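Internal ticket - ligand job 672, iron/sulfur cluster:
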Amino acid sequence: MSFDRIREKLNILADAAKYDVSCASSGSNRKNTNKGIGNATGMGICHTYTQDGRCVSLLKILLTNHCIFDCAYCVTRKSNDIKRAAFKVQEVVDLTINFYRRNYIEGLFLSSGIFKNADYTMERLVAVAKKLRLEENFNGYIHLKSIPGASDELMKEAGLYADRLSVNIEIPTKAGLKELAPDKNHEDFIKPMTKVKNEIMQYNSEKKIIKSTPKYAPAGQSTQMIIGASGENDMQIMYTSNYLYNRFDLKRVYYSGYIPVSYDKRLPVIGTEVPVLRENRLYQTDWLLRFYGFDIRELLNPEHPNLDLDIDPKLTWALRNLNQFPINVNTADKMLLARVPGLGMVSVNKIINARRFRKLNWEHLKTIGVKLNRAKYFITCNSKHFEHKDYAASQLKQIIVNSSNSKHKTAFTGQLALFT
Amino acid sequence: MQATTLVYDGSFDGFLSSIFEIYEQRITNPIIIKKSEFQNQLFGEQLNIISNSNHAKRVWDGIKKLLKPNGSKLLYYAFLSEIYGLENTLFKVIKYAFETQKNVISDFGNSHVLSLSKTAKKVSREKHRMEAFVRFQQTKDGIYFANILPDFNVLPLINSHFTKRYADQKWIIYDLKRKYGLFYNLVKTEVITLDLNNNILNEDIFTSEEHHYETLWKDYFKSTNIEERVNNALHVKHVPKRYWKYLSEKHP
Ligand code: SF4
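stdout (structure tokens):
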């Protein structure tokens, strides 16, 4: 293969793929079998980080950036005047294997523009995964994009070789989709997602009876929504997300602040700032739903349709529900502790462990490494001294905002640090 | 009270053998120190410990029974930090566990337990970093070679990760600081020492393809960047500057 040609293709097709923010390589359970290459068990590994602090763990590329569609928000859209390129199946296989052998990556994330039609494209994505698994004996991580509108048969085959499958919803509402991606319809997304969900369910039930049932997409499926392209409020976004989690049993929903890529009048103009802080608040909300036992209606509702940008969603909720505080750290159960602003799950577990040995006071909490600057207003412990005075919610918000240092306010940490 | 200094060979077995002697000889005020760090003392008694795998195993089994696999793992991690004097902290934790006959590993109210736990966490972080940042280069005789300079002695900890992962290629990971390495020969992974004069790091031991893949990787790294989102503070937080030496994509 010609090195220069590959180099050019890689530059074009990696550049076009970077807008997909998913980087997860975790949650699979593929072991190295038959002395092959690679494994994808347990935690994912970030092999490096981009300058904007995103984890790089997969070779994330498009098979091609030729596309028959014209979605307004996408750099690859038909009407955009850019350089186009296409990898051959074998070229992607070689790149993946050689990067993997050098410990650059955990595996491959392969997406594509739609050329000819959905099935034609999906077939090629599946061919790459199949070759990696069957010819190269590759057990690393493979994430394939499900092409909207791809047939059930292909989706079934895709799941046999991929660890994760994803279809990007991109636009959170049907109306927005119609406006910005007129070639696509809602059904085209739902179909492959439903198929994958059903296959996973079937796999799980067969697995119980027949141990050797071939794996099907062991790391599940995910999707992505673009934030700030089509005017939705946070409530619309998070209700859609909540629906997707429940309906399709998704592993993750990713939120990607829209990066202006066109002068299209339907969209924010080029140069508009990427809503990174809003994106972070959405991720925090997402975590509160999945790990902290919150119901979406507690956080967003017609009365409060948008998240507060000044403070995180857990603190926002707490300030609206001051009557539920203070909480006694020595007696409260785990899920109640998890509701205290400033206490992440790591701190909650530390408290639960430590309080088995003694009743905790402020000193103990500090020594075991629990950050108290926000939590102290919401808890009591084995001490006569309490921070909890009868502040009004607005007062307390001011105090907390003023005391959190500016580093905290500006260096928000994308999808990585959500432990609040 | 007179202190007794126990001098051991620096190995984990040696450390456990020291603990054995402390109990066997009822030493009341012990100081455990590596031979390499020991300077003759004028005062107190000195005891040279010879590693004894039998004794070590007996102590280790006792520890595992109390601290459970998880806690004993943390103790081993902390040991590998090689921090000066940490043996004595570890001993105090072991003593605390033996005395109370409890699994004390999460009793962070005890300052020794807390310090063990913090150290183990640092070592664990270094382990994960090495698993992430090791970069192999293929030599002309087909071995994937990487050298590292970790803060702590993590080779024993990353062995199984790389052995499981790269089962069909020969590889070497060499710790330049501690002057030993792991070599996987397609059958099993062995500890090796190499006579590394400077020319091992000489470019022409590597294949010509090697340079191509490095270039492709660097390009790839550049393409994944989203200009509009650059946040260098966050970037440096994830990859502290001292690790950049491993990462070819960060070299100009
Ligand atoms: S179909 Fe996909 S690649 Fe093509 S324009 Fe739409 S979003 Fe972009």
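Auto-summary: Residues 406-420 of chain A have pLDDT under 50 and may be disordered. Chain A touches chain B through 57 residues (CB under 8 Å).
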